[in-house]
Amino acid sequence: MLRLSKLTDYAVVVLVRLSGMEGVQTSPGIAAATGIPEPTVAKVLKTLAASDLVSSQRGAKGGYRLNRKLSAIPIADVIAAVDGPIALTACVEGSTSECESQGLCPMRGRWDPVNDAIHSALSSITLADMQAAPLPAFRIHSSSMTRPQAVLQTAAE
Amino acid sequence: MLRLSKLTDYAVVVLVRLSGMEGVQTSPGIAAATGIPEPTVAKVLKTLAASDLVSSQRGAKGGYRLNRKLSAIPIADVIAAVDGPIALTACVEGSTSECESQGLCPMRGRWDPVNDAIHSALSSITLADMQAAPLPAFRIHSSSMTRPQAVLQTAAE
DNA sequence: CCAATCAGGACTACCCCAGTCCGGATAATC
DNA sequence: GATTATCCGGACTGGGGTAGTCCTGATTGG
């Protein structure tokens, strides 16, 4: 199904949220604003910090801050940061000649054009594109909602 | 990691193998030729038959046959047949408004451009492209191999 | 010195895929 | 008509990976 992890989903949400504010933001704060569980937000942010997508400020009054503008972050970077290198098959990703059946595996290099195509497709779309995306004419209803909603309604908070 | 299932891998191998022969081929035969376990080959072929990528002939002297030429089969079709519809997020695939947190989920439609990009990328590459792919200058060594190797060395058997 | 926050890892529960197997239906052959 | 080879469809099970939580330590401001 070619699915990417839910964490990547969260990462996009968190990053877009970060872009909306000026100073640093704490993970509890982001968790409250997005509705994503606090530990999970922390996990995502740590991962993103490891990939230099966000900067962290430790200690009291600390928090996270976006390093680049959304328009400078291709979605491929986010996926790579959270889900690891973008590659469709296990054969391709690094472990050269580690294929279980070297002689049998006819894939060696054969998925490369596919991987390249996907990679370039994902590199051409930035978070800004996703932020300003279609966004159907649907509005957030606060009815039957108990949690602190309002994740990012068109980034204009 | 954006990985697709190993079954898709197998499907490509099986389809390329099918393209090399004229008449129908049995799943045991393909299993022997490709080194893929027999039940798995059968499973893949059944799936491919359900998506009209291959035709099946039942009964004795039966088997499978390719419906279109490799050049007419985009890899997207194979992925869709084996792994289901191509969509990156769970939100997108069908279950409309089934998102666990409707108000919270800012993804609704936002991954669409990404999905579209990937879909078109995968539609532009056919099995023929993958068959005639880079194919590094490496040859199958029969040394230290016990299983029936020779999956498809450049489709010229 | 204390409180708030990030850092980094370990840990667990759950879900989905991979692979197998079985009984049934179909069709060619003898 | 019986037999045999093959596909059909589903159920079943085990393993791997993700999601999510938690804990201990390091850093920094009040």
Tell me the span between the first and last alpha carbons of chain A: 34 Å
Average pLDDT, all residues of chain A: 76
**What would CATH call the homologous superfamily of chain A?**
Winged helix-like DNA-binding domain superfamily/Winged helix DNA-binding domain
Cα gyration radius of chain A (Å): 18 Å
Stated plainly, the CATH topology of chain A is called Arc Repressor Mutant, subunit A
Low-confidence stretches of chain A: 92-105, 134-157
Biggest sheet architecture of chain A:
2 strands, antiparallel
CATH class of chain A: Mainly Alpha
- Return the string of H and E elements of chain A: HHHEEHHH
Strand percentage of chain A lies at: 5-15%
Oligomer: homodimer
> What CATH architecture of chain A would you give?
Orthogonal Bundle
Give the overall silhouette of chain A.
elongated
Strand order of the largest sheet of chain A: 1-2
Give a verbal description of the structure:
- Two copies of one chain form a homodimer.
- By secondary structure, chain A is mostly helical.
- Chain A has a single domain (6-131), classed as Arc Repressor Mutant, subunit A (Orthogonal Bundle).
- In chain A, 39% of the residues lie in helices and 5% in strands.
- Chain A has helices at residues 6-19, 27-34, 38-50, 75-83, 112-123, 127-131; strands spanning 54-57, 63-66.
- In chain A, strands 1-2 form a two-stranded antiparallel ribbon.
- In chain A, strand 1 and strand 2 form a beta hairpin.
- Chain A is elongated, with a radius of gyration of 18 Å.
- In chain A, 40% of the residues are buried.
- Residues 92-105 and 134-157 of chain A have low confidence and may be disordered.
- At the A-B interface, helix 1, helix 4, helix 5 and helix 6 of A face helix 1, helix 4, helix 5 and helix 6 of B.
- The structure holds a DNA duplex (30 and 30 nucleotides).
